[in-house]
Amino acid sequence: MTLPNRSKIEAKGVSVFYGDNQAIRDVSLNIDQDRVTAFIGPSGCGKSTFLRTLNRMNDTIAGARVEGEIRLDGDDIYASGMDVVELRARVGMVFQKPNPFPKSIYENVAYGARIHGLARSREALDAVVEQALTRAGLWNEVKDRLKDSGTALSGGQQQRLCIARAIAVDPEVILMDEPCSALDPIATARIEELIHELRGRYAIAIVTHNMQQAARVSQVTAFFHMGQLVEHGDTAQLFTSPREERTKDYITGRYG
Amino acid sequence: MNSAVPADERRRRLRQRHAAERRFRLAGAAAVLISAGFLLFLLATMVSGGLRGFTRTQIALPVDFAAAGLPLDPGQLEGREGAASLAGAGFEGLTDHAAIAAFGPHGARLLSDAAWISVRNAVRRDPSLLARRAVIQVPAASGIDIAFKGRGTPEAEAEVASLARRSAISSHFNAALFSAADSTDAAAVGVWGALKGSLLTMAVTLGLAFPVGVLAALYLEEYAPRNRWTDLIEVSINNLAAVPSIIFGLLGLALFLNTLGLPRSAPLVGGLTLALMTMPVIVIAGRNAIKGVPPSIRDAALAVGASPVQVVFHHVLPLALPGILTGTIIGMARALGETAPLLMIGMRAFVAAPPDRLTDPATALPVQIFLWSDEVNRGFVEKTSAAILVLLFVLLAMNGLAVYLRNRLETRW
Amino acid sequence: MSAPTLLLLILGLALIGWLAARTRAAAFATRPGQRSPALPGHHATFVALCTLAPALLFVALWTTISPALVTDRVLASPAAAQLPPSGFERASILSEARSLSDHGLGAAFHPLAARLAPAYDEAQGHYDALAAGIALLLAFGSGAAAWLRVRPGLRARRHVERGVMALLLAASLIAILTTAGIFLSLVLESWRFFQLVPVGDFLTGTHWSPQVIDPADPGGTLGAVPLFWGTFFIGAVIATAVAVPLGLMSAIYLTQYAAPRTRRWVKPVIEVLAGVPTVVYGYFAALTVAPAVRQLGVAIGIESASSESALAAGLVMGMMIIPFVSSIADDSLAAVPAGMRDGSLAVGATLSETVTRVIVPAALPGVVGGILLAVSRAIGETMIVVMAASGIATLTLNPFAPATTVTKQIVDLLTGEAEFDSAKTLAAFALGLTLFLITLLLNIIALGVVKRYREAYE
């Protein structure tokens, strides 16, 4: 199976600093259309930091500074004319801990569509909400209680609600920062299944510290260590015959 | 055991140490009891003195309207002209005569200065009285009122006894307390004028301090860059919250009255002054409430493309609002009990009519308490305590509301 | 045109702008599903803000400069030629004429004021009409210009949000302005006072009787040392002697000994003491405590015991500040790591030994900070001393003797009938400045101590 290698996001020579600390050194990496890219590596290796540079969530951290170039469909996302708000609508994000708004399930999903003016009528908004919940595999579980609070759902359902919330804005890329680390194995399996289904529609980048998960869900894997991108490539190939010694040590469990 | 200290010596020491422990514990309990006892004693003093202020002694005054022949037409007591003719009809003289006729030469002194108003109001309610004799309930003079409640002078006690023999004296709920304003006659005063002044003042304070306080709290907590200016703002706010209230009064006097030329004694100026005092309290409470909103909510909103302003106004502010409201109510309760700054801007005038506008001369409930406490007439003592009870009740209600809001609406994360 | 009418008209224009912009933006709305940089609502708000902001700023500016313009125009009128050339009388006639014109009061104290009132009416009307015209033109012009800019590419949301940010910043600047206002007004009036009375006389003089001020030597009866002493004696000595033992021991009992249930009930009860209005304490002090203290004084043989003694005011003030001491001491004691307490108990110390030798010393900075805050509150407290302390300034160590304080004197000086510029009223501001600086210093030290202490255990 060979997919055309269309790059959605191209990162070139990216470095991230927190004050005087350099968290990421000179990382160049592409996120491809129609594929899942997994970032793996020991804790503190910079994989989450790199993920957050892709939709400029690092802007919210005081003293964070990004060097290098990140292009979304060829446009530099750190250019001065780039509207961060529009960028984040195109590059959605799902967080480590499910973080639904303390509002109804419906309002959680409708919020993004509302602020971006994606639906012009109540019916259109209903349709957006239903479609997003359906794609997130949650519709059948919640369709009768859309008015209930999003925080009343189970952890796995909350995380799928957060995915639905991201989908409702109709993004082109979805970033996932260890989306299953707070979930039990059954809920994790549901999310992984969902990632498979979403792959055809969105470019997906997922941070995980679980190598089995990376192997299960991704087509491309990037291994980070000490703020550097050590190696990246086809997932099957990286796990079976890594080129670098450090990658091999990590996936065989020497450290991490 | 090769201790150098003999066993009985050790046992003695241990007993002493346990005794010291018991004494210490007792001292702690005593401190708590004394502190709480202060509060109870204070409240008990106010309640025992103030409850009497809620009742009023009334005297049944027989008035022979037909014989007096007032220049009034029973059919025309309505409207503006009716009021004018009632005002000029000479009810004061009529009331005095009736009192002298009924209770002897000192009769008029038994009645409150405002007794004739009760007579007039009775006629206004029922014009048919003008054609006959009727018994009207009128407020007793302050001295009689005190004597009837059991702590008057011997002469007043004697008058009360003679009135009681004729069954002409009785005690009623003092409705005037909640409808009248200040007066020179202790028997006729009410807190309504002062309460209304306080309400108008608080409206101005809330209208200014709440929006400004909330917006400032949002700016400082969510957007302010860390630099010297922000530090200066923070230091200013923390210090303003601890500046003595009388200093705000001096500021109000110098700025609002002398520089801007706003009217003295007005709820507008009182409200402005108290707003400057309350704003830092709201900012500090607001910042704590905003800090309590977890960052993950902000991340979630940012990640679907909400702008920083949308994040704050759609998510952070609604979630922090219960906490902000709690802080606001507590700040407002403090402003409502505040006296000193209002004295500085002249809200201590004798105001006999409740204010209708923000620029009318007015007084406030705590200032009214202060003014009455200065009165020589003994009738004001119970009125002062009654006014204090009204003030404490309002404050208790406000704090109760704050606690309710905190328990009911605040989200625990 | 009256101010409310003008404001309503401006608001009306803004509403029209809002509706017009919304309609215009809705017409070019993007096809469903496509994101645009701004929604119709953003365009509408943008136009409404552009309509409001310049006009309201103009009105605000105008209200500060218009009184001067009006006065100039009145002075140019023929009736003003008869005004005395300068001085107090001229100012008082002008201000009376102004209030006649503002409030429509019938009778005039000064006949000239009555003749000037129509001139005020005319000038006020002239400038009001002018201002209303300019404000409406500004609102319409800038609103229309904004409306013309409404097109698909306009980043209306960003413009609106910049406006919101400016508003937020302005709100937080009010705090600085208030502080500056307090400082400036106190310093300016004090400056005028110190031109009449030498600073040295005021700060070191021991004789205070503002009722009799000798114009040749005003400083002779305006020496504030007895006030400073009275303030210190009542607020920092007597009140603290009541509040510190009671507050600290209550905090120790409630944190170390009391059952959680007791603590949950008793702590708020003690804190209610801080919520009782000070005028109630004042009344309580004057009516109940002061006579009792006097009787006590007489009973122990002090015939001169005053019914306005320092002791009565100080006792009640001490009651009031118990919660300030106890709640900060409570926090500080609770913040001492449990390990310290356990360590002491584990070597066989009793709880009281642990408290006095380990926990309280560890919590001491926090406790001291709380005491300083309580003292600062006590010396700035006004109503208790106004109602229960004496007006006579004395330098005495006898708690049964009358004593007065800075705050009591500020109230006495400013609630008399003196004109505003006399040494008497200006002295109140000099006292206010001293009080402000001392409480500021106490607060800064206290907050610094408490903060450093908190950081030590975090």
From TrEMBL, chain A:
Residues 9-251 form the ABC transporter domain. InterPro entries: AAA+_ATPase, ABC_transporter-like_ATP-bd, ABC_transporter-like_CS, P-loop_NTPase, PstB-like. CDD domains: ABC_PstB_phosphate_transporter (cd03260). It comes from the Bacteria. It is found in: Cell inner membrane. Keywords: ATP-binding, Cell membrane, Membrane, Nucleotide-binding, Phosphate transport, Translocase, Transport. GO terms for biological process: phosphate ion transmembrane transport. This is Phosphate ABC transporter ATP-binding protein. It comes from Sphingomonas aracearum.
Automatic annotation (TrEMBL), chain B:
The keyword Cell membrane applies. Residues 195-402 form the ABC transmembrane type-1 domain. Keywords: Cell membrane, Membrane, Transmembrane, Transmembrane helix, Transport. It is found in: Cell inner membrane; Cell membrane. InterPro entries: DUF3333 (IPR024573), MetI-like (IPR000515), MetI-like_sf (IPR035906), Phosphate_PstA (IPR005672). Its main location: membrane. It is a multi-pass membrane protein. Gene3D superfamilies: MetI-like. GO terms for cellular component: plasma membrane. The keyword Transmembrane applies. Pfam families: BPD_transp_1, DUF3333. One of its GO terms (biological process) is phosphate ion transmembrane transport. Belongs to the binding-protein-dependent transport system permease family. CysTW subfamily. This is Phosphate transport system permease protein PstA. It comes from Sphingomonas aracearum. The gene is pstA.
UniProtKB/TrEMBL annotation, chain C:
Keywords: Cell inner membrane, Cell membrane, Membrane, Phosphate transport, Transmembrane, Transmembrane helix, Transport. One of its GO terms (molecular function) is phosphate transmembrane transporter activity. The keyword Transport applies. CDD domains: TM_PBP2. It is a multi-pass membrane protein. Signal peptide: none annotated. GO terms for biological process: phosphate ion transport. Residues 229-446 form the ABC transmembrane type-1 domain. The chain crosses the membrane at residues 41-63, 164-188, 227-254, 358-376, 383-406, 426-450. The keyword Iron does not apply. It is found in: Cell inner membrane; Cell membrane. One of its GO terms (cellular component) is plasma membrane. Part of the binding-protein-dependent transport system for phosphate; probably responsible for the translocation of the substrate across the membrane. Belongs to the binding-protein-dependent transport system permease family. CysTW subfamily. NCBIfam families: phosphate_pstC. This is Phosphate transport system permease protein. It comes from Sphingomonas aracearum. The lineage of its organism: Bacteria, Pseudomonadati, Pseudomonadota, Alphaproteobacteria, Sphingomonadales.
